[in-house]
């Protein structure tokens, strides 16, 4: 792709995994429709934002 780095990230489970470093708890019960609430640490956010954050951090980690 014309000199643009690209990393493929599997999207499965990204909106049910806590994005907080040190937690990263993954469970289907973390997602309540559009709301994400981590059952382990209590982190709350929009589930789509959580998924996008996890895709980003996973992609960065794979490139490192």
Automatic annotation (TrEMBL):
Keyword check for DNA-binding: yes
Pfam families listed in its UniProt record: Cas12f1-like_TNB
UniProt domain Cas12f1-like TNB: residue ranges: 2-55
UniProt entry keywords in alphabetical sequence: DNA-binding
Descriptive protein name: Zinc ribbon domain-containing protein
Lineage: Bacteria, Thermotogati, Deinococcota, Deinococci, Deinococcales
């Amino acid at each position: 792709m014309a000199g643009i780095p690209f990393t493929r990230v599997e999207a499965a489970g990204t909106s049910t995994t806590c994005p907080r470093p040190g937690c990263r708890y993954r469970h289907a019960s973390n997602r309540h429709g559009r709301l994400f609430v981590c059952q382990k640490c209590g982190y709350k956010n929009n589930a789509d934002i959580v998924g996008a954050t996890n895709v980003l951090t996973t992609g960065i980690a794979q490139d490192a």
